[in-house]
Design goal:
- The structure is a single chain.
- The radius of gyration is 25 Å and the shape is globular.
- The longest helix has 22 residues.
- With 556 residues, it is α+β, with helices and mostly antiparallel strands.
- Strands 13-12-1-15-14 form a five-stranded mixed sheet, with helices on both faces.
């Protein structure tokens, strides 16, 4: 047994209101740069819906993730090294820009500076790729709030799969009962297929916390990682020629701060924590034959941080005691393993994803309320979960490879928690039969309620630190909205962008980027004269100072 530590995240989907604050703050922190205009490390999808990029779950087309070979061993769904070598220069199974969207801004300058006249000026959409007028036809959240509509429903790959079995019954019941939001980031998998797909070896998994990153120096832009990732959470920067992905905000995590998306989440639905796992057992767990057994296999990888044997092995592996303490207090371990209410997204991809979800109970509750029922009565709520089989099947396709019993069990626990605590809140005698009906005790159910409903900041984010001395400097990282003329503040111009660097560099870089993208001259002749900043260099010309002056020549 080789014990390693992994940072993970749990999202409670019952709390997501689809405000996209997490997406915007992540964009501001990490991908508000030239070449990443279409990139969303964090996006919030309306379900049912196509997702981002369009229909990314259709692995018959995109060939992402792993599958079992004839010998029972894992192999990349897109093919091994020989097949990838033949397609290294042109892969036919990668999403195109149209599958994401052509990013745009608006010609605000014309709108603001148009002379007085009889006609109202129009801010036409401008492509951020070509700079020309464009027509807006798609975006990262185009399905927003349209998940249950008949127009969008047929385009969801999961619904399409279910309809092949049940036809119009699925469509009718889903349309009447079901819509929820699904925030997505990189899964930082235990068995990442993106890493196995990279010909350059640029993608690596950090030994200390399991965060998956891209080495920008080693990346050669082959884009095989995009094909290999079944979640399509790796993107190609068309300016730098490099692959980029969610970093799990590792500079913040290293100093004990939560990720930007977690910090700014309005619904407080995200939990961050550490857990221990057996690295030697990952391959075997991902290779179980029945896809519906992958969820249990992944749970078995999570080691009990209270077990003296596990603790001893962890110490032998070099995991410090404060990290072991963080693993014991981890909300991710509690929700996924102790209470078993958090589920992985598409475990059938066999990547062992590390971002887990508490499935939503709200669609059931909302339907009962609209019909005039007492939606939080235990008997009514349990009966509705059993009756609404189609939504459970949809959730099962997302989180348990189609195993409806696991999803039903989770929903029953959530319903029991809601019904039991409602009685407590109303001053009634606690009904011990409610938690007993789902195999839990009253104290255990209350502890689960406390974690999911009223947990404080330090309970939702249990993050072991690495560089505490830098914590204060990074507290405001990634949000230059607090500064005059930052993005969205005053005179930002149509193409203003921030770099996402730590404050106060983000403000300085923002102005440099704005000047570069609105100027008619190369960066070396404009605002960048006299200094070298490769982050803001647009590739035109050679900035002064990039190379030492030749002997006998003027440095200028």
């Amino acid at each position: 047994m080789r014990v390693m530590a992994q940072m993970g995240m749990v999202m409670n989907l019952d709390k997501c209101i689809g405000c996209h604050t997490c997406s915007v703050t992540c964009k501001q922190a990490w991908t508000n740069r030239a070449g990443t205009e279409y990139v969303w490390f964090n996006n919030v999808e309306t379900r049912p819906g196509q997702g981002y990029p369009r229909r990314y779950e259709d692995q018959e087309r995109w060939r992402g993730g792993w599958e079992l070979g004839r010998n029972g061993k894992l192999k990349l769904k897109a093919g091994g090294r020989v097949k990838k070598l033949f397609g290294i220069f042109a892969s036919p199974v990668q999403p195109e820009l149209g599958d994401y969207y052509e990013p745009w801004t608006y010609d605000y300058q014309t709108l603001v500076e148009a002379p007085l006249g009889d006609d109202f000026p129009v801010a036409r959409p401008k492509s951020l790729i070509t700079g020309e007028d464009t027509k807006i036809t798609w975006s990262a959240n185009w399905d927003d709030n349209l998940g249950g509509s008949s127009e969008m429903l047929d385009l969801d790959p999961v619904v399409e799969k279910l309809r092949r079995e049940s036809e119009d019954k699925v469509r009718l019941e889903l349309e009447q009962t079901f819509m929820f939001y699904l925030p997505r980031i990189c899964e930082h998998c235990l068995n990442p297929s993106c890493m196995a797909s990279c010909p350059s070896g640029a993608i690596y998994k950090r030994a200390e916390d399991g965060i998956v990153l891209v080495d920008q120096d080693r990346c050669r832009g082959w884009r095989q990682c995009i094909t290999g990732c079944p979640y399509k959470k790796i993107y190609f920067n068309h300016r730098s020629g490099k692959a980029e992905k969610c970093t799990f905000c590792y500079p913040r995590v290293e100093v004990g701060l939560p990720t930007v998306c977690s910090e700014t989440c309005v619904g407080r639905l995200r939990y961050l924590g550490l857990f221990l796992y057996d690295a030697d057992a990952v391959s075997a767990a991902a290779s179980v034959e029945d896809p519906q057994e992958l969820y249990e296999a992944q749970l078995d990888l999570m080691l009990d941080p209270h077990d003296p044997g596990v603790v001893a092995e962890a110490r032998r592996s070099g995991i410090p005691d404060d990290w072991l303490d963080a693993a014991r207090r981890s909300p991710v371990y509690a929700l996924a393993k102790t209470y078993r209410v958090a589920l992985p997204l598409h475990p059938e991809y066999r990547t062992m994803p590390m971002v887990w979800y508490v499935p939503p109970l709200s669609p059931v509750v909302d339907l009962l309320s609209s019909q005039g029922h007492d939606a939080e009565d235990a008997g009514t709520l349990f009966g509705a979960i059993e009756a609404l089989r189609i939504p459970v099947e949809y959730l099962a396709e997302l989180f348990t490879a189609g195993d409806t019993e696991v999803v039903t069990g989770v929903l029953r626990k959530l319903a029991a928690m809601r019904a039991y605590m409602r009685g407590v809140s109303l001053g009634r005698e606690p009904d011990a039969s409610i938690p007993a009906s789902v195999g839990m005790g009253e104290e255990e159910l209350y502890e689960m309620y406390r974690l999911m409903a009223i947990a404080k900041y330090e309970e939702r984010y249990v993050i072991p630190t690495a560089h505490v001395e830098d914590a204060h400097r990074l507290e405001e990282m990634g949000c230059s909205l607090d500064f005059d003329e930052g993005p969205g503040m005053y005179d930002s111009g149509p193409f203003g962008e921030a770099s996402g660097s730590p404050v106060p560099v983000a403000v300085e870089t923002f102005h440099a980027l704005r000047d570069r993208q609105t100027a008619d001259e190369p960066a070396s002749q404009g605002s960048m004269r006299g200094r070298v900043n490769l982050l803001n260099w647009d590739g035109n010309g050679r900035p002064d100072g990039m190379f030492p002056p030749s002997p006998g020549k003027d440095a200028s």
